[in-house]
Design brief:
The complex is a heterodimer of chains A (about 900) and B (about 110). With about 900 residues, chain A is of the alpha+beta class. Chain A is about 50% helix and about 15% strand. Classes of the chains: A alpha+beta (about 900), B alpha+beta (about 110).
Chain lengths: ~900, ~110
């Protein structure tokens, strides 16, 4: 009989048993037919029941059969302790779900290899640089001429391809009025074949599509975009869309599942790098990532050295034209480390910015799961103690230890299984919700979160781990029962020690979660309550772009039109909105000083009246005027005045600015204004100058975009969006709105990551507190129940309730203190790792330490009250009578 | 209670296999009576151990079982030898002959 039949027989146990009975009956019939005495024949055959069991054992896979009966028994027990089981399953489900959701995010952004032929051979070229805060960071944007050089330098050892950031652009399949956003990525034509990708429709880009700047208006759609936006239209090949000044022809659709190389963004449209024509020959614009796919026999280190040499060679050329840069800066630039990290899972800003945050959330989720496991383990331990008599009975009638462990583990497994199913549902629902927290609605992080074997494997491993974490110890304890002790009755001191240990771990984990959450919440709090220096209230930032470069009068006319909209109070054009992520940094200096003493300052061009629209106070001097020479007039902020003019008033004084290769311009200070944040609140206030809006000497000369700051009367400035849009269309000159945001939204977006961490860690802290509180309650309650007899005797001998209460809680209180100490030590130890995510907060701040202590204390008192009440209400007479 | 003459260890399997090799498709009761008749009532199968033995051999793959309808309309479970059982029989038989031969030699020589 094969194992399969035996496994099968387990589930048709009754039928197998019936067949055995029938065979034995037919034997008896024969015997009687042969003239034997029925009774004698029956006796000769022996006990039918014993025979059947003996035969059944050979016909069934007996371990599986015992599993089945254990499962049935476990279910019965779970149903019997309905409330406790439901609480255990729910808390496990919540924490398993949280862990799984965290895993899905971490997997999608950090781990999952790109669906290409050889993800293990993919590397990304990076270089080290020092950011404005003086921190070393890795950069990965390169210019195209350098890419060309590098590509030929390592030809034969590695395939290089250039991929730009997936940027949001506006495009249209019809008229200009039907512009819609899409994520467009420039890629080298040979990228797809190098990655071994196949089209799902039409063809992919080839090297032939990427030869002459501006000459290849062809596009490949991502499979996701094709199905989402175009409904999977099979006739899409040959259709055209207009983006910028190009009319692109769609030549193919990419493979399903490939969403670009940038986790967090789903690329909609791939076009050849040559279509970014203005930047192909420009070595001052870093706009591509350099992807390196090693040939099988190539060594990563050799390739890295060659690439590093190429980078340095170009930089040596570049610094020759630099003026006004200190020797140290030049030195750092030339000797920057060039690295070639593996990038099997892709590379993106999201990945870079959130890597640490996600890993920390994953760790917090794991701690949460451990707390829940400890709870359930305690519950099981308590049940094991309650079942000591049953176990003792099982041992005395000959059940083996393994069999008993299996019996108890089965119950754990059932709980874990139910919790995993619920948890998977929770994760399935919550992961996309968490993703939606990552970014504002108009520039959302988009991820494919497939429910595939990776997800299932994680769930299975997690379930198994959970079963062993909370099931094994109680199972071993329950099965290790000595019949004689159990029958004699009385407490089990080892069990309580184990439970106390689990409480200690819970308290430590809970404290740690609260501590870390406190750091994140305070960081977010400090960042979001930093004085902005301007008023974001009722303020709208309207970014307008034009097709060509209209004369300055057109922008002025548009401002006037907007002012005519009812509900609009003030309109002021400017280069861009403050804190929107754009920054224009220039070098200025005092006249006569050498270039190495240059100051690096922020510059923003604004129209007269902008100060008032923004609510920025004028400290001295005057505002800009339309009659000012746009090249030579500036406002400076207080930080600038303090830094470079010390005690004197800078109004009327001059400084120098270099424009166009060495030509110096004298700039006169017209006024001093209050400080306002220009960039990220973490960067803080920096010296800043404001120059007239007409100064249009940006990278490309005349202005083709402007941001209109609109102060409205209504508290909901977005209500005017439609009317303002209409004015932009009416103005003509190909002007259109590129984005409309409230200034408040722009400010909030600066702290997205901090809000994300604060929100989720606060949620974790809440759940941790609840779980730990329930755990504490459970253990105290159990200990009171167990010690009823002792308490009763003490009370009968005249012990005071306070004394009894102390007796009952002393152990747990000690665990609370020790656990908090451990948690605190772990928290302070973890600060070094968290540092980059924190702002203006230290792990040793007393408020950071006091908050979790106080919270835990209150929770502990609340959890302890009901059991204490029970303890001091123990009626000695009744307890002793019951004995 | 008299000691039973069939208590030679392991011989039940051999007997069952041998009989099935001569007369296939017997049910349990017929197997028992066959052993009794052929041994001229010397060997009596303990009825209680016959069925567990049959089921064990079935599980080991030496015999296979089938339900048939008898003349009286009742179902009976009949057994026959598999190829594996035939090999097993040869092994068991030679082992038995080796053992009984050895015992005989001892009896003669001692």
């Amino acid at each position: 009989m094969s194992l399969r039949t035996r496994l099968g027989n387990v589930f048709r146990r009754q039928q197998v048993a019936d067949e055995i009975d029938e065979e034995l009956q037919s034997h008896l019939d024969q015997a009687i037919e042969a003239g034997r005495d029925p009774l004698e024949a029956k006796r000769a055959l022996g006990s039918a029941l014993r025979l059947r069991e003996e035969s059944l054992d050979t016909k069934l896979a007996s371990w599986l059969d015992s599993l089945r009966s254990d499962a049935a028994f476990g279910l019965r027990l779970l149903r019997k302790n309905r409330v406790a089981s439901a609480a255990a399953i729910l808390s496990l489900a919540l924490t398993i779900g949280t862990s799984t959701a965290a895993f899905r995010l971490i997997d999608a952004i950090l781990l999952r290899p790109l669906p290409v032929a050889h993800p293990e051979r993919l590397h990304l070229l990076t270089y080290q640089f020092t950011d404005q805060n003086g921190k070393k960071r890795a950069g990965d944007s390169f210019d195209y001429p350098l890419f060309r050089q590098l590509r030929s330098a390592v030809a034969g050892q590695a395939d290089l391809f250039a991929i730009s950031n997936a940027g949001r652009v506006d495009l249209t399949y019809g008229s200009d009025q039907e512009m819609e956003p899409a994520f467009r990525q420039y890629v080298s034509g040979w990228t797809f074949s190098a990655l071994g990708l196949q089209p799902s429709l039409g063809r992919l880009l080839t090297a032939e599509d990427d030869r002459q700047p501006g000459a290849h208006p062809v596009a490949v759609l991502s499979h996701d975009y094709w199905t989402r936006r175009l409904g999977g239209d099979p006739k899409v090949i040959g259709r055209t869309f207009r983006q910028g000044n190009n009319l692109y022809e769609i030549v193919g659709v990419g493979p399903a599942g490939f969403t670009g190389t940038q986790p967090g963004t789903i690329t909609d449209i791939f076009v050849p790098t040559m279509m970014n024509a203005g930047f192909i020959g420009n070595s001052n614009w870093g706009w591509i990532r350099v992807w390196v796919q090693l040939r099988p026999e190539a060594s990563a280190e050799t390739v890295r050295q060659q690439l590093a040499a190429g980078v340095k060679q170009q930089r040596l050329e570049k610094v020759k034209t630099w003026a006004g840069t200190s020797p140290k800066e030049i030195d750092d630039y030339l000797n920057a480390n060039v690295e070639l990290p593996a990038a099997a899972s892709g590379a993106s800003g999201i990945e870079r910015e959130y890597r640490k945050a996600l890993l920390i959330l994953g760790a917090l989720a794991a701690l949460l799961l451990l707390i829940a496991c400890a709870n359930v383990a305690n519950l099981m331990l308590a049940q094991a103690a309650a079942r000591a008599q049953e176990m003792a009975l099982r041992v005395s009638i000959g059940a083996g230890r393994v069999r008993l462990v299996q019996l108890v583990l089965m119950e754990s497994a059932l709980m874990a299984l139910a919790a995993t199913v619920l948890g998977a549902l929770f994760a399935w629902w919550s992961a996309p919700f968490v993703v939606s927290l990552l970014n504002p609605p108009d520039n959302p992080v988009r991820l494919l979160l497939p429910t595939d074997w990776r997800f299932l494997a994680f769930e299975l491993v997690l379930t198994a781990a959970v079963v062993f974490l909370f099931g094994l110890v109680p199972a071993l304890r329950a099965s290790g029962v000595q019949p004689i002790d159990a029958m004699r009755g009385g407490g089990d001191p080892h069990g309580r020690r184990l439970m106390n240990g689990l409480v200690l771990a819970q308290v430590a984990f809970c404290f740690l979660i609260h501590f870390v959450a406190g750091l994140f919440v305070t960081t977010f709090d400090r960042l979001s309550h930093q004085p902005l220096g301007f008023s974001a209230e009722r303020l709208l930032a309207l970014e307008v772009v034009s097709k060509g470069k209209p004369p300055a009068a057109v922008w002025a006319e548009l401002a006037d039109r907007m002012r005519s909209v009812p509900g609009v109070q003030r309109v002021s054009p400017s280069e861009w909105a403050l804190m929107g992520g754009n920054a224009w940094v220039i070098d200025v200096r005092m006249p006569g000083l050498t270039t190495s003493d240059g100051w690096r300052v922020y510059l923003l061009s604004v129209a007269p009246g902008w100060l008032e629209t923004m609510g920025i106070a004028l400290r001295s001097g005057r505002d800009l005027r339309s009659t000012d020479n746009p090249e030579t007039t500036a406002l400076v902020n207080e930080a600038f005045a303090k830094r470079y003019f010390a005690q004197e008033s800078p109004v009327g004084k001059t400084f120098e600015r270099q424009v166009n290769k060495g030509k110096m311009v004298q700039i006169t200070v017209a006024g001093v204004v209050a400080d306002a944040l220009y960039e990220d609140p973490r960067v803080g206030i920096r010296p800043t100058i404001y120059m007239p809006f007409e100064t249009a000497d940006g990278p490309e000369g005349a202005r083709d975009r402007a941001t209109f700051m609109v102060k409205t009367a209504s508290p909901d400035p977005l209500a005017l969006a439609g009317a303002l849009r209409h004015q932009v269309q009416q103005t003509g000159f190909g002007l259109r709105v590129s984005s409309i945001d409230t200034q408040q939204q722009i400010v909030d977006d600066c702290t997205t990551r901090e809000r994300f961490l604060a929100l989720l860690s606060r949620f974790f802290a809440g759940v941790a507190l609840l779980l730990a509180g329930v755990g504490l309650y459970g253990v105290l309650n159990y200990s009171v129940l167990q010690r009823r007899r002792e308490i009763g005797i003490r009370m009968a001998l005249g012990a005071q309730p306070a004394h009894v209460a102390w007796k009952v809680t002393a152990e747990v209180a000690a665990m609370l203190v020790v656990g908090s100490g451990v948690g605190l030590a772990a928290g302070i130890g973890s600060e070094r790792y968290l540092e980059t995510l924190l702002y203006a907060v230290k792990a040793t701040d007393w408020a950071i330490i006091a908050t979790p202590v106080a919270t835990l204390l209150v929770a502990a008192i609340l959890a302890a009250l009901p059991p204490l009440w029970h303890a001091i209400r123990v009626d000695p007479a009744r307890v002793l009578r019951a004995e | 209670m008299m000691p039973k003459p069939d208590s030679l260890q392991g011989s039940l399997d051999l007997l069952v296999l041998k009989i099935l090799s001569r007369r296939p498709r017997l049910h349990g009761y017929a197997l028992m009576t066959a052993i009794q008749e052929i041994s001229e009532d010397v060997l009596r199968v303990e009825e209680g151990s016959l069925y567990p033995a049959l089921h064990r051999m079935e599980e080991a793959g030496w015999v296979q079982a089938d339900w048939v309808i008898k003349e009286n309309g009742r179902r009976a479970r009949i057994y026959e030898l598999t190829a594996e059982g035939r090999q097993r029989l040869a092994v068991e038989q030679s082992r038995w002959e080796a053992v009984s031969g050895a015992v005989n030699r001892v009896l003669r020589m001692a």
